[in-house]
Design a protein that fits this description.
By secondary structure, the chain is α+β, with helices and mostly antiparallel strands. The chain has helices at 21-30, 41-44, 177-181, 194-199, 209-224, and strands spanning 15-19, 81-90, 98-111, 115-126, 132-143, 167-172, 232-239, 248-258, 264-271, 277-286. The model has no long low-confidence stretch (mean pLDDT 95).
């Protein structure tokens, strides 16, 4: 087991990344935003009459990297790494263009027997004013790296509420959805190359998990925030099943009350075309 459990607390050097209006538009189209409903034109166009361009909050996942600290956990086979969980916390609305500086930290390495879970947290500040813009937490499961007798990590307390969801939003992904989304930065051939996907046991390339996450974020904006990106405060989900481009994604939302700082809270699940859960144990806060 070459990874080092003592790497908890390791931090990356600050890194900078800038983005433009075009990058924001491309991300929005990559997660399925379009002309309908009309409220999405603010995310997909920069020159529509009486509409100012804005940025989808889930674009935070493709900004700032956040995995720089992973270089300090030791060596492992990247092909054995699976994205497990993703959380974003928005401190304010993401501007249409800008530059951020990001520092990431390894906050947990847990022994799951057949593998290890590595948790990384990253905070990105806007260079123009030095104030935090968003924070991200992600976990990765690395197969074959467990078994050293370490802590198995905290258990997540989450239950699907009884009864029908308060809101249901369904989107259809396009057959070429992964080819669009990959242009926002993730060029993993698993999402584009049929031969590479076959080596992973898939009939054809699969959709990026973070693309499913972005579709889900759009659903939450529509269901809870009237399409207003400034109202989403945080979003967490656990990836539970791969999605094939062309599938329907159905976001089921249950409102759960009031949270900290005057925000409201909700839980959600995202299902694929056959009803299986593809993004599980979802939580979010919004105003």
């Amino acid at each position: 087991m070459p990874i080092n459990p003592d790497a908890v607390g390791a931090k990356s050097e600050p890194t900078r990344q800038s983005w433009t209006s075009k990058d924001a538009l491309l991300y929005a189209v990559g997660v399925g935003a379009g002309q309908e409903p009309l409220e999405e034109l603010q995310y997909t166009t920069e020159n529509s009459t009486d509409i100012d361009q804005r940025v989808l909050p889930t674009m935070a996942v493709v900004l700032g990297g956040g995995g720089g600290a992973f270089a300090q956990i030791g060596s492992f086979n990247p092909a054995m790494l699976v994205h497990g969980e993703q959380q974003i916390s928005l401190h304010r609305e993401i501007p249409v263009e800008g530059e951020i500086e990001t520092v990431s930290e390894i906050t947990g390495i847990y022994d799951k027997g057949k593998g290890a879970v590595v948790v990384s947290e990253a905070t990105s500040t806007l260079v123009s004013d030095g104030e935090p813009l968003f924070s991200k937490t992600m976990s990765a499961f690395i197969r074959g790296e467990g078994g050293w007798g370490g802590d198995s990590g905290p258990a997540l307390e989450w239950e699907r509420p009884d009864g029908d969801p308060d809101e249901v939003v369904t989107y259809t992904t396009r057959p070429e959805q992964a080819l669009i989304y990959r242009l926002s930065g993730d060029r993993n051939p698993l999402h584009a190359d049929p031969q590479f996907a076959a080596m992973g046991g898939f009939d054809r390339p699969i959709l990026h998990g973070l693309c499913t996450y972005g579709f889900t974020g759009r659903g939450l904006l529509r269901a809870l925030c009237d399409g207003d990106s400034a109202r989403l405060r945080s979003m967490y989900g656990r990836f539970s099943s791969p999605v094939l481009p062309g599938e329907d994604l159905t976001v089921k939302v249950w409102r759960t009350g009031d949270g900290p700082d005057g925000a409201s809270t909700a839980v959600f699940q995202t299902e694929g075309s056959d009803g299986r859960v593809v993004l599980d144990k979802g939580t979010c806060s919004y105003t």
